[in-house]
Specification:
- The structure holds two protein chains of two kinds.
- Chain A is an alpha+beta fold.
- Chain A is built from 17 helices and 18 strands.
- In chain A, a hairpin with a 4-residue loop joins strand 5 and strand 6.
- In chain A, helix 9 runs antiparallel to helix 14 and helix 14 runs antiparallel to helix 15.
- The longest helix of chain A has 20 residues.
- Chain A starts with 10 loop residues before the first helix and ends in a 37-residue tail after the last helix.
- The C terminus of chain A is likely disordered.
- By secondary structure, chain B is an alpha+beta fold.
- Chain B contains 14 helices and 18 strands.
- In chain B, a hairpin with a 4-residue loop joins strand 4 and strand 5.
- In chain B, helix 11 runs antiparallel to helix 12.
- The two termini of chain B are about 20 Å apart.
- The chains are: A alpha+beta, B alpha+beta.
- At the A-B interface, strand 9, helix 8, helix 9, helix 11 and helix 17 of A face strand 8, helix 6, strand 10, helix 7 and helix 9 of B.
């Protein structure tokens, strides 16, 4: 696939590759720099695998100071930097460039400090999402955002993309669960934002850096909120004869005053694939399935699920199954969280991530099927229904360039549809390169200019993850991006 | 203050700011003006109010979302929400009465632009956390939008949320879109009388660290509790620590008894039923413990465990009554008036224990001479100036409201 334009590498940087690698080794140490081809190949793409590009070099610092020195050097020498967590981005957020250095935080993964009274944990951002919950789980606490890739993805990536997950209906997304960060800016300066307390006064820079897709700095440490686990939790499966009825059920549950921890939606193609993979007991004779989870004591759960079942009954569901035990609950969630992987075994797929107002759900689902049908492609829908965050998985054969192109076109149409009903291009995966050229569907030139000035404030030369988020044309004209002014405070590093 | 500009539409606001920019006239931005006494006094020759930007263009109760023009009064918003059994979950404070103004007058725009959150913040997040999108005009006279009306949105930078807490210094917000929530079915409050500050904070932390979804924790010194009208509270003649549980009726019953059991080391609580609980938390929301008067008020955000130490550190330098919210993480400190509000001592104590302090109530001369907001680190100051420059390079909007030079 090659319909997304990527900037041509800067020849003057490519020509200096050996020298840059020598300098990076001098700065970061030989153990932290990956320069050989085989080593770099592991970093040539992320989970948006249709696009690949070998980076100039990879640096994996072990301290904030190490990150700072590398960024300071790259900034002084006009070298682009691609920040990287675990490389699980679904939108090409971590896609390297030939003339760029990948700076990864994967070797900075320590839990630094926990305060159960203040309900926070301070961690290095290379820690995986699940490892935070695992570290505080024995004390009955957890870190709430739970993207499906939580076993592998790092907090750094979650911060960059403001990741969500199945349970953010109740607990919010990453930005709602972070109290402070330590961020290294492109000039190497280190800034602490927020801290071990709530709601710092002053401009809300936390809001800007979280979700900035690695374009404003590299976050090396974060203080995240941890929450006390509920006494228990239990999912229920509600199967319906039509996606319409399932959609109405979602709206009625939310309107009733109950906010479940999660409401997940699967259509028939998704149910079949996930059931074959996880043997979770999903009903196979339904057109749409909801997984609704509530929390509390056993009695509270029974009470709440009974109430929700009552709402569902009015819509004549084909199936109502309450999880019988922990093992079944685990299977039900395993099926949902492995959905992308399970579908990936059948076909290549593009995962869309638009969010829509809930009221438009039936209509939009119908149109998604129509759009994909028009391009001759199959689609499975599996998504966070409670908050309207869709995940149509458009299946195609990556070895067929025409199919690849059609899949991208169908995806773009779906996202435009989401925006046209009052929604947005991406609910939790980010813009990356994938949706970069669709930004004008959602934003005016002025809206984009307001955002791009913030990029320029943090990174005047646009060296950090530059080819992402904003359309390539219409960017601010920089003074002289390729030939930065010499910076007297930066000493050249001896080889 | 001769000129009051009252834009009624975004385009009108845009043309006003264009004209002001051409003439380099800076301007004070207000909603209903209930928080004008907070922050550094703004010295401008013109005033702009959002009061004519009124109305609720979108309310979808089944999607838990509302959009409101920024000058719409909070009381109108709450009437609309209440009619559908919903609320603003972050429980914005009514700071008006503490400044001699009526409750309910503040605008919804000001609630978000000052990130104003009350007791339930500890459980559900702040005003900032509930903001989904915003429209506005910046100091460059550019009409822009950010975010949207959907619950999950990571498209582009989160500019809307970044405007919260900017006190009108970056842009004039014309419309906000935010999450709302169902009103709880039932509510109960457990009052623990007589605890010293450190034990009270311990109790509150244990309560929010329990699985029972405590939705409010506050500790009032006896002097503050004595100012409340809720039956039975003043009569305790003691400091009062309050723990709120809200949920479905059955759950409240169950959780109340489990929680009282878990917290029995702190004594036997007095129970406030639904009606009294509503009154008690409404009084706190109106800041009834800090009525209009000459005393000064600091708002300090810190780690709960550090809070009692921080307060006792300050008390070495001045008399102070401390009310704790957010399980101890938020301190409302009432001090006698003084020439410098004890700023140096407060800042030193905050630096030692970690956190942020804001001078909320003091004479205008004092707010002019001491730093009202938490002084910034060098790195944050550079970014703060840069962000102001990005949004308002001519310094037209609320100049000096937060920091003397921004």
């Amino acid at each position: 696939m090659s319909s997304i334009e990527l900037p041509l590498p800067e020849p003057s940087i490519l020509a200096r590759r050996d020298e840059i690698v020598r300098d990076l080794i001098a700065i970061a140490g030989r153990d932290s720099v990956i320069a050989d081809e085989d080593g770099r190949r592991a970093y040539e793409t992320d989970a948006f695998t249709a696009y690949r590009c070998m980076p100039l070099a990879v640096v994996l610092p072990v301290t904030t100071d190490g990150v700072s020195k590398v960024l300071k050097y790259c900034n002084a020498n006009g070298i682009k930097v691609i920040p990287r967590g675990a490389g699980t981005s679904l939108c090409g957020g971590a896609l390297p460039a030939e003339d760029a250095v990948v700076v990864g935080v994967s070797r900075m993964s320590k839990l630094l400090d926990v305060d159960y009274d203040g309900r926070w944990a301070r961690v290095e951002t290379g820690i995986t999402n699940l490892a935070i919950s695992a570290a505080v789980g024995a004390n009955g606490f957890f870190y709430a955002p739970d993207p499906s890739s939580q076993l592998a993805c790092t907090l750094a990536g979650n911060l960059a993309m403001n990741s969500g997950g199945a349970h953010c209906l109740k607990y919010g997304v990453t930005t709602n669960n972070v109290m402070g960060v330590k961020i290294v800016l492109m000039d190497g300066s280190v800034v602490d934002i927020g801290g071990q307390y709530l709601d710092s006064e002053g401009y809300d820079f936390l809001s800007l850096v979280i979700g900035s897709e690695g374009q404003l700095g590299i976050i090396t440490e974060a203080t995240v909120r941890i929450l006390r686990q509920a006494e228990g939790a239990k999912p229920m499966l509600l199967g319906f004869e039509s996606t319409d009825k399932a959609s109405i059920c979602v709206a009625r549950i939310i309107a009733s005053g109950i906010i479940p921890v999660a409401i997940e939606f699967m259509d028939k193609p998704a149910i079949e694939v996930c059931e074959a993979f996880a043997k979770a007991g999903y009903p196979l004779d339904v057109a749409a399935l909801l997984i609704v989870e509530v929390e509390g004591s056993d009695e509270e759960i029974a009470d709440r699920l009974g109430y929700i079942a009552g709402i569902a009954q009015e819509l004549n569901p084909l199936s109502i199954v309450v999880s019988a035990n922990e093992a079944q609950s685990a299977k039900i969630w395993k099926g949902r969280k492995s959905a992308f992987g399970a579908i990936g075994r059948l076909a290549d797929y593009l995962c869309m991530d638009g969010t829509i107002p809930l009221g438009h759900l039936p209509n939009v689902l119908e149109q998604i099927t129509e759009i994909c049908g028009r391009y001759g492609l199959k689609v499975a829908n599996i998504f966070h229904a409670g908050d309207g965050n869709l995940h149509p998985l458009i299946m195609y054969d990556a070895n067929d360039p025409r199919q690849s192109e059609r899949a991208e076109q169908a995806g773009a149409e779906i996202l435009k549809l989401c925006v046209s009903v009052g929604g947005c291009l991406t609910g939790e995966h980010g813009v990356g390169i994938e949706k970069r050229d669709l930004m004008r569907v959602q934003f005016s030139e002025t809206d984009l200019a307001v955002q791009m000035r913030i990029k320029t404030l943090f990174d005047p030369q646009w060296l950090l993850n530059p080819a992402k988020v904003f359309p390539l044309d219409g960017r601010p004209v920089l003074d002289s991006p390729q030939a930065p002014k010499p910076q007297p405070d930066v000493q050249p590093v001896a080889a | 203050m001769n000129d009051v500009l009252r834009p009624a539409a975004d385009w009108e606001l845009k043309s006003m700011i264009t004209a002001l920019g051409e003439q380099r006239i800076s301007i004070e931005i207000i909603g209903a003006g209930t928080k004008r006494g907070i922050g550094r006094p703004v010295a401008t020759s013109a005033l702009l109010t959002t009061a004519s930007l009124r109305g609720i263009p979108l309310y979808e109760p089944t999607e838990l979302v509302m959009s409101a023009r920024s000058g719409t009064s909070l009381s109108q918003i709450e009437v609309e929400l209440g009619a559908r059994g919903q609320m603003l979950p972050f429980e914005p404070l009514e700071l008006g009465p503490a400044f001699g103004m009526p409750a309910g007058a503040q605008t919804i725009g000001s609630v978000f632009i000052t990130n104003n959150s009350g007791a339930r913040r500890i459980a559900v997040g702040s005003a900032r956390d509930h903001l989904l999108g915003a429209r506005g005009v910046n100091g460059r006279a550019e009409q822009f939008k950010s975010g949207g009306r959907v619950m999950k949105n990571v498209t582009g930078y989160d500019v809307a949320r970044a405007l919260t807490g900017s006190w009108g210094t970056l842009a004039v917000v014309t419309e906000v879109t935010f999450k709302v929530a169902p009103l709880p079915d039932d509510m109960v409050t457990l009052l623990y009388p007589g605890l010293p500050d450190d034990l009270a904070v311990e109790l509150m932390c244990a309560a929010v660290g329990s699985p029972f979804e405590v939705s409010g924790t506050t500790h009032l010194p006896a002097a503050h509790a004595a100012r409340l009208q809720t039956p039975g509270v003043a009569a305790l003649s003691a400091p009062v620590t309050a723990i709120r549980i809200e949920n479905f009726m059955k759950s409240v019953l169950y959780r109340k008894s489990r929680l009282a059991e878990a917290l029995k080391a702190y004594g036997v609580p007095v129970e406030l039923d639904l009606e009294k609980s509503l009154q008690f938390w409404a009084e706190l929301r109106r800041m009834a413990m800090l009525p209009f008067g000459p005393s000064f008020v600091w708002r300090i955000s810190t780690a709960p465990k550090a809070a009692p130490l921080l307060v006792s550190n300050i008390r070495r330098h001045m008399p102070a009554e401390a009310m704790y919210d957010w399980s101890g993480g938020l301190i409302w400190l009432e001090t006698p008036p003084s020439a410098d509000a004890g700023a140096a001592d407060v800042r030193r104590a905050v630096a030692m224990h970690g956190g942020h302090a804001t001078l909320i109530r003091a004479d205008s001369a004092v707010r002019h001479s001491v730093e009202v907001f938490q002084p910034l680190s060098a790195g944050l100051e550079r970014l703060t100036r840069g962000l102001k420059q990005a949004f308002d390079p001519l310094g037209l909007l609320n100049p000096g409201r937060m920091y003397a030079t921004v």
